[in-house]
Design a protein that fits this description.
Aminopeptidase, 5 helices, globular, alpha+beta, 180 residues, eight-stranded mixed β-sheet
Length: 180
């Protein structure tokens, strides 16, 4: 499968909000939330994944905060899950961390989301805390953190990226990894 990752643009927002709703339903972001992030948040870096046919299959939103990248949203369309696309998005967050020389990447994850937690564990995220009743339905969020993003971590990510290629996933980066 050939996919393209690129910076999110304002014209992408309706499709991204639709994807977010398909992936998360009650926890999804509105078009207004994405628009505000792109237009007003100078810390924000948003990306999308598209197939060669132009279908939007994933999105990633991060904040670059001094020496940390915080993933605020990461979504893969339900029909495209379990194909390595979440890993592609996560690797983009690591690339951003490398660009800004961050020491850590953090995120919140539903405690019940076993699939996401397994993915994050594969990339050396560990539980760093808990936010009680974080989600609208009252479920707790685990605060996950990947620390020490140095040479050993880069080597491990290169191995994981190579494993994705061996599975037939080809990623093209369109434009620079900059904020729109």
């Amino acid at each position: 499968m050939q996919i393209t990752i690129r910076a999110m643009e304002l014209r992408d927002i309706p499709a991204v909000a639709h994807l977010d709703h398909a992936a998360f339903a009650v926890d999804s972001w509105s078009e207004q939330s994405f628009r505000k992030e792109l237009l007003e948040n100078r810390l924000a870096h948003y990306y999308i994944l598209q197939t060669d046919a132009g279908a939007l299959v994933g999105s990633l939103g991060c904040w670059a905060i001094v020496d940390e990248v915080h993933i605020v949203t990461i979504a893969v369309h339900p029909d495209a899950q379990r194909q390595g696309l979440g890993e592609v998005l996560l690797l983009q967050a690591f690339e951003l961390a490398q660009q800004i020389r961050a020491d850590a990447i953090t995120l919140e994850c539903r405690e019940s989301n076993a699939a996401a937690r397994a993915l994050y564990a594969k990339y050396d995220f560990a539980v760093a805390g808990r936010r009680r009743a974080y989600y609208p339905d009252g479920e707790d969020a685990l605060i996950l953190s990947a620390q020490g993003i140095g040479a050993d971590s880069q080597r491990r990510r290169r191995e994981l990226r190579d494993a994705l290629r061996k599975r037939g996933l080809r990623v093209r980066h369109q434009g620079k990894s900059e904020r729109s």
